[in-house]
Amino acid sequence: MKRWILIGMVVASGMTIQAQNKLPEKFPYQDTSLTAEERADDLLKRLTLEEKASLMMNGSPAIPRLSIKAYGWWNEALHGLARTGLATVFPQAIGMGASFDDSLLYEVFTAVSDEARAKSRRLDSKGNLTRYQALTVWTPNVNIFRDPRWGRGQETYGEDPYLTSRLGVAVVNGLQGPDTARYNKLHACAKHYAVHSGPEWNRHSFNAENISPRDLWETYLPAFKTLVQEAKVKEVMCAYNRFEGEPCCGSNRLLTQILRDEWGFDGVVVSDCGAVSDFWQKRKHETHPDAASASADAVLNGTDVECGNSYKSLPDAVKAGLITENQIDISVKRLLKARFELGEMDENVWTGISSDVVDSPKHRQLALQMARETMTLLQNNNNILPLSKQAKIALIGPNANDSVMQWGNYNGLPSHTITLLEGMQRYLPTSNLIYEPVCGHTDSTLFISLFNKCSTSEGNGFHSTYWNNNTFTGEAVTEVQQSTPFLFNTNGAAPFAPGVILRGFSAEYRSVFHPEKTEDVVFRIQMRGAYELYINGKLVKEDEGAVKQMTSIYTLKAESGKSYDILLKYRHFDKTANLSFDMGVNAQIDVKGLLERIKDVDVVIFAGGISPALEGEEMPVDAAGFRGGDRTEIELPAVQRRVVEALKTAGKRIVFVNFSGAAIALEPESLNCEAILQAWYPGQAGGQAVAEVLFGDYNPAGKLPLTFYRNLAQIPDFEDYNMTGRTYRYMKETPLFPFGHGLSYTTFKYGKLKMNDDKIAAGQNLNLVIPVTNTGSRDGDEVVQVYLKKMDDTEGPVKTLRAFKRVRIPAGKTVEVKFSLDDTQLEWWDEQSNTMRVCPGNYTVMIGGTSCEKSLLSRAFTIR
C-alpha cells in the first residue's frame, strides 16, 4: 500500500514539474489580432488598484506577473530627439516657424520619429524603456508666443494661431506616422494646455484669470483644437498654471467640458512635471490640502498620467472615498490602449528602421535645408548682401563661434556643429577673415574659452564618467565625451547624461590641457553640490554648497609646450543639480584696439543676440536682466550695443546677425547696421546656412513668425493675458519689423487678385488666385500670405492670417498661387453665441508677402 502511495506521489510530482515548465496561458490582452481597446479591456480587469496607480505615473514600474515592462512616458523631441545623446539637431522650433514650410517640417519630424524608433528599439532590446527612451514624445509646444519676454517662446511656432495650427499638424503627422500603419509610429503631445505663455518665475502659482471668451477661443485654443480634431494627436499635456482659479491639470472646464466633451478627445492627458504637486504644496497653488485630494481631483477631471509622485497616493484616495476604483479605471484604460497602439507590449514593431538613421547624412542634409529656410533677412540697405567672396571681413561678437547656443533648448547632441566661424572659413582664406569674440553676451569683460585646447584619447573635450550614487563607487552608469563647456542643469528633469539619475549622483571629468602659449588660465564654475578640482594629480580647489553665479575658482599659470592633466570631481545631494564649467583667459573689452586691427576690412559681421543660457525654462535669476528664464528687457544687451555703436562711429559697414529665440528690439541696430539677418538658434548646420546666405549661395525667404517691437513700451504688462495691443493681430502701433516680414535677394510682384465670387454663402469656400512674378535676376522662394478682416468688428483683430504657401518661383517667371478657404479659415468670433463660426457680414481679404497692410493687395467680399 505504501509503495503505491509513493509511486503516486512521484507521478504527481512529475506532473507538477511539467506544469510549471509549461508556457503560461496566452491571455486575450496578449493576442495581437485583437484591437488595442479590446486588449486594454482585458488587461485592465487583471490589475490590482495599486498596480493601476503605479501605471498612471510617468515612471511606470514593471508588473512581471502580467509581462508588463517598465515604461517611462516622458521623451522629448522638440527639434530633434533630446537628452539621449547623439541625435540630429534641427533649428529651434521658433526658427522652423519662420520657414512657413509645413511640408519640410513634416519631413523633419518624419526623420525625428525614425531616429526615435531606431533608438527605442535598440534600448528596448536591452531592457525596459525609461525616461527619454520612450515612444511618447512631449512635443509640439503650440502655446501662443504672446510676449517676447517669455523664455520658452523659442519652443513655439510664433504668435499666430493659424500658423501654429498648421505647423503643429505637420509635426504630429510626422511623429505619429501614417494612419494605415498597424501600430502608431510614436505618440505626439500637444502642450501646454492651456492659456500658458509665462511668466516662468511664478508659473507654479500663477492664475490666468479674466480671460475673455474671445481671447480664449480665438487665440489660445485654436491650435489645440486643430491638433485634436484634425491631426488626431494622441496626447495633450496640461499646464502648470491655473485657469480661472482651477489648476489646469484639474480644470473641469478645460479637460472635461472642452477637451473631452466638445472636441471628442479620447487620448491620454499627461501632467506637466510636478503640476499635480503644485495643487497642494506650500507657496504654489495651494488649492488642495494634500496629495490624495489633489490626485483624485486631477484624475476625476481627466489627467491620466502624472509626471511626478503624487499619484502614488491614489489607493489612499480610494480608501478615503475621494474617488472610486471604477473612476480610476477610465484613465488606466486610456493609457493601456495607448501602449497597445504603439506596440510597446509587442515584439518586432517598426523593425525596418535601422540605427544608422541617427545623425545620418540624409538627416544632416535635412537639418541644413531647414536651417536655410529659417534664415530671415530683416534689412539689406544698399544691397550690401550678398557679400563678395573676395572681400576682407571681420567676424566678431559673442555668437560667432558658439555651438551650444545654436542647439537651443530641449536639444540632442549632434556629431558636429558648424558654427558661423567655421561656415565663414569655408568661403574665405585666413588672410581675408579676422575673427575676434570682442565681448560676451552681457559681460563687460571678455572671457575667451580654451576648452577646445583640452582633449582625451576619445577626442576633444573631457571624458565624463557617471555613477548613480554620490560616492563614485560601483559600476559606472555611463561614460560620454563632453566636447563643449559644461552647461548642465536638471531643471525640467534633464539628466547630465543618458541614464544618470537626477539627484544623488557623482561624476568625474578628465582631460589633458595643451596650452599654446604661456598665460594665466582661469577655471570657472557654477554649481549646486560639491566639487574638487585636481591639476596634475594635486587638489587645487574644492567647495560644497551652491555657487550661484559663474565664478573664477583657480588660476593656472600655464606654460607653452607643457600639458596638464585636469580632473573635476562632482557630487550631487538633493534638489536641483547644476554644473557649469569652463576654462580660459580673461581680457578687457578693447574696442579701440579692435578698430585698429580691423581698420582695413571691407565689412564687419557682428554675430550677436542672446543664447539659451539667458532665455529658457524656469532658470535661475540672472543679474543681467533675465528673470527665471524670462527677459525683463527686450533690447540687445548693452555691452553689444556699445560695440556696434563704436563700429558705426568708426565708419564701418556692419552686417548684424542676430541669434535669439525671441524678438529683440533692434531699433538702434537698424540705424547703425546696413543689414540685419535673423538666424534664430539654427541647429547643428546653422553656421553653414548663415554663411550661404551672407555670400549669396542661398537666397533667403524666411518670414517672421512674430512681431519685432521697437521697444518695451510697445508691449502691455507681461502678466496680462488680454490680447489687446498684443501681436500683429491686435497691435495699433507700427513695429520695427512686422509679422510675416522677410526680404529676398530677388523681388516679387503681385498681380490682380481673382476671386470666385464677392458674395458667398456660409459653407461655401472662398477661392483665390493671384499671379506672383519673380521680377529679379535670381530664383527664389516667396511666402504668399492671406489675411482676413471683418469690417464691422471694431473689437476684433486688425487682420489675422488664414492661409499661406511657400512657393518656388524662377527668375522672370510667374506662378499662379491658388487658395481655397474653407469654413475653418473663414470662421470669426460671434459675440452672440460666444463661439467661433462662419458669420454673415462684410470682409476684406488681403494677400501679399508680409502682414504690413500697405504692402498687401485687398479685396472686399460678403458672407451671406
From TrEMBL:
<comment type="similarity">
    <text>Belongs to the glycosyl hydrolase 3 family.</text>
</comment>
<dbReference type="Pfam" id="PF00933">
    <property type="entry name" value="Glyco_hydro_3"/>
</dbReference>
<dbReference type="Pfam" id="PF01915">
    <property type="entry name" value="Glyco_hydro_3_C"/>
</dbReference>
<dbReference type="InterPro" id="IPR044993">
    <property type="entry name" value="BXL"/>
</dbReference>
<dbReference type="InterPro" id="IPR001764">
    <property type="entry name" value="Glyco_hydro_3_N"/>
</dbReference>
<protein>
    <recommendedName>
        <fullName>PA14 domain-containing protein</fullName>
    </recommendedName>
</protein>
<dbReference type="InterPro" id="IPR026891">
    <property type="entry name" value="Fn3-like"/>
</dbReference>
<dbReference type="InterPro" id="IPR036881">
    <property type="entry name" value="Glyco_hydro_3_C_sf"/>
</dbReference>
<dbReference type="InterPro" id="IPR011658">
    <property type="entry name" value="PA14_dom"/>
</dbReference>
<dbReference type="GO" id="GO:0046556">
    <property type="term" value="F:alpha-L-arabinofuranosidase activity"/>
</dbReference>
<dbReference type="InterPro" id="IPR017853">
    <property type="entry name" value="GH"/>
</dbReference>
<dbReference type="InterPro" id="IPR013783">
    <property type="entry name" value="Ig-like_fold"/>
</dbReference>
<dbReference type="GO" id="GO:0009044">
    <property type="term" value="F:xylan 1,4-beta-xylosidase activity"/>
</dbReference>
<dbReference type="GO" id="GO:0031222">
    <property type="term" value="P:arabinan catabolic process"/>
</dbReference>
<keyword id="KW-0732">Signal</keyword>
<dbReference type="InterPro" id="IPR036962">
    <property type="entry name" value="Glyco_hydro_3_N_sf"/>
</dbReference>
<keyword id="KW-0378">Hydrolase</keyword>
<dbReference type="InterPro" id="IPR002772">
    <property type="entry name" value="Glyco_hydro_3_C"/>
</dbReference>
<dbReference type="Pfam" id="PF07691">
    <property type="entry name" value="PA14"/>
</dbReference>
<dbReference type="InterPro" id="IPR037524">
    <property type="entry name" value="PA14/GLEYA"/>
</dbReference>
<dbReference type="GO" id="GO:0045493">
    <property type="term" value="P:xylan catabolic process"/>
</dbReference>
<dbReference type="InterPro" id="IPR054850">
    <property type="entry name" value="Xylosidase_Xyl3A"/>
</dbReference>
<dbReference type="Pfam" id="PF14310">
    <property type="entry name" value="Fn3-like"/>
</dbReference>
<feature type="domain" description="PA14">
    <location>
        <begin position="457"/>
        <end position="599"/>
    </location>
</feature>
